[in-house]
Design a protein that fits this description.
Bound molecules: uridine-5'-diphosphate-glucuronic acid
Pathway: Nucleotide-sugar biosynthesis; UDP-alpha-D-glucuronate biosynthesis; UDP-alpha-D-glucuronate from UDP-alpha-D-glucose: step 1/1
Pfam families: UDPG_MGDP_dh, UDPG_MGDP_dh_C, UDPG_MGDP_dh_N
Protein name: UDP-glucose 6-dehydrogenase
GO biological process, one term: UDP-glucuronate biosynthetic process
Largest sheet: 6 strands, parallel
Organism: Micromonospora palomenae
Oligomer: single chain
CATH class of the largest domain: Alpha Beta
Number of domains: 3
Number of strands: 16
Strand content: 5-15%
Length: about 475
């Protein structure tokens, strides 16, 4: 028997509401068309909603309107073209058009780490909410989706109050998203839960209507999507708590990797063995170069900063360790590289001058072109800083990587990167690298030495092909 969670807060009942535009289903807008907003806009059109996507970046909007997805996300191109053709989906840079069109406005702008500390930069949230609110001429619901410090929804509500006449009755709600890049389409169409933070029955009804497409799809596939209706603060916290948990799980297994390295154990077998316990589970237990991306690293920092402000800093002190364990994995790759190349480390780390190193992977994980806070690119830059001639290949991330780390040499293929290399570092587990033939690569490389930064290669196969192999947390 499962024991239900006690319902601490009285939740508003879901009462059917009529969208203020008079349309049968709420018309939805998405402000910000990055990895989050573009995916949501396109998938919501696929669910049958009338959708308008907004961004201040005219280039991005022109591309989207021309049927071109500005990011790499599997499955999204086809959905974009189909829904543009169906006339359900448009993109605009005109905020007054957005205000006119929408019943429910989803705020999907970025909340990066502040330049001056660990907290989140809310300037994009402020700018998008303010300009939208200033243009609203009828009742609407503004829903935050961006990952934010707890308390932001209340602040957004005040902001909206300041910029809209009270008689319009514009309301605010918060509904965090949990999509993972690389699986984003499915995560939006088939989420494992929907969380909404609301204050009124109207907002709850409106948000229910704005998610009905998701519930209906689930019903046709004989699934259920759990709905958690809660208050603003809890809804905001759910998101950062989930990401903090995932980051902790990854750092836990990477801490075990460190111990395995010292004790001569194999963390991949350890992970498999503990993962069979359903209370632990085997997902997000892949030891390696650690977590990166635009979410996990900055979210655990912003969470600590906010907890500190609230006087609960001690509760999250462990997240500082989670961060440090994660960052230590990058240095570990350098140690393994130095070990394989017979380079000694001085106080400034190893000296790789005179060596050529192939780095396979630049993105923070496979199946994306996203290089934000990518461990692979960070390690490539560290290797170059230590004197190595670094040649990078990534199946999708080269264009973005070149912008972030122009000092590196980028190659058009895996073979080009490996040719003449004294050492190969596999730092993102793209299928192309996992399935690469070590015999073929061995003929191209100058030295058969490989660091498997993601424990994604078949070490037996590579060793048999004459490679000296080093994994993470493996003997
Ligand atoms: C993460 C969360 O997984 C999503 O649920 C959340 O919605 C999203 O952040 C967000 O806040 O928007 P994402 O950043 O796309 O999604 O990437 P993840 O799949 O979580 O991977 C993050 C990093 O952890 C990657 O660098 C990956 O290589 C690394 N990782 C993941 C490991 O090192 N080991 C693992 O076992 C799993």
């Amino acid at each position: 028997m499962t024991i239900p969670y006690p319902n601490i807060q009285p939740v508003p009942a879901i009462t059917p509401v009529t969208p203020p535009s008079g349309a049968p289903r709420p018309r939805v807008t998405f402000l910000g068309t990055g990895y989050l907003g573009a995916t949501y806009a396109i998938c919501y059109a696929e669910l049958g909603y009338e959708v308008l996507g907004f961004d201040v970046d005219a280039d991005k909007i022109a591309k989207l309107n021309a049927g071109e997805v500005p990011i790499h996300e599997p499955g999204l191109d086809e959905l974009l073209r189909r829904n543009l053709a169906a006339g359900r989906l448009r993109f605009s840079t005109d905020i007054s058009e957005v205000a006119d069109f929408g019943d429910v406005h989803f705020i999907c702008v970025g909340t990066p780490q502040r330049a001056d500390g660990m907290g989140a930069d809310l300037s994009y949230v402020e700018a998008s909410v303010t300009s939208l609110a200033q243009h609203l001429t009828r009742k609407a619901l503004i829903v935050g989706k961006s990952t934010v410090p707890v308390g932001t929804a209340e602040w957004v509500e005040q902001l909206v109050g300041k910029h809209t006449p009270t008689d319009l009755g514009v309301e605010v709600a918060w509904s965090p998203e949990f999509l993972q890049e690389g699986f984003a389409v499915d995560d939006v169409l088939r989420p494992n839960r929907i969380v909404v933070g609301v204050k009124t029955e109207w907002a709850n009804g409106m948000l229910y209507a704005a998610h009905k497409g998701v519930f209906d799809l689930a019903a046709t596939e004989d699934r259920e999507v759990p709905l958690v209706v809660t208050d603003f603060a809890t809804a905001e916290l759910v998101k950062v708590a989930a990401n903090a948990f995932l980051a902790t799980k990854i750092s836990f297994i990477n801490a075990m990797a460190e111990v395995c390295e010292a004790a001569g154990g194999d963390v991949t077998q350890l992970a498999r063995a503990i993962g069979y316990d359903p209370r632990i589970g085997n997902r997000f237990l892949q030891a390696g170069l650690g977590f990166g991306g635009a979410c996990l690293p900055k979210d655990i920092r912003a969470f600590q900063a906010r907890a500190q402000e609230l006087g609960a800093g001690e509760a999250l002190r462990f997240l500082h360790e989670v961060d440090l364990i994660n960052l230590r994995r990058r240095t570990r790759v350098l140690q393994l590289a130095a070990d394989l190349l017979g380079r000694r480390s001085g106080p400034a780390g190893p000296d790789f001058s005179g060596t050529r190193i192939a780095v396979l992977g630049a993105t923070f994980k496979p199946n994306t072109d996203d290089v934000r806070d990518a461990p692979a690119l960070a390690v490539a830059a560290l290797l170059a800083k230590s004197g190595a001639d670094v040649h990078v290949y990534d199946p999708q991330g080269t264009e973005n990587a070149r912008r972030v780390a122009p000092e590196l040499t980028y190659e058009a293929s895996m073979n080009d990167a490996v040719t003449g290399a004294d050492l190969v570092c596999v730092l993102t587990e793209w299928a192309d690298f996992r399935n690469a033939d070590p015999v073929v690569l061995g003929e191209l490389a100058a030295g058969r030495k490989v660091v498997d930064g993601r424990n994604c290669l078949d070490s037996t196969l590579w060793t048999q092909a004459g490679w000296e192999y080093r994994g993470m947390g493996r003997p």
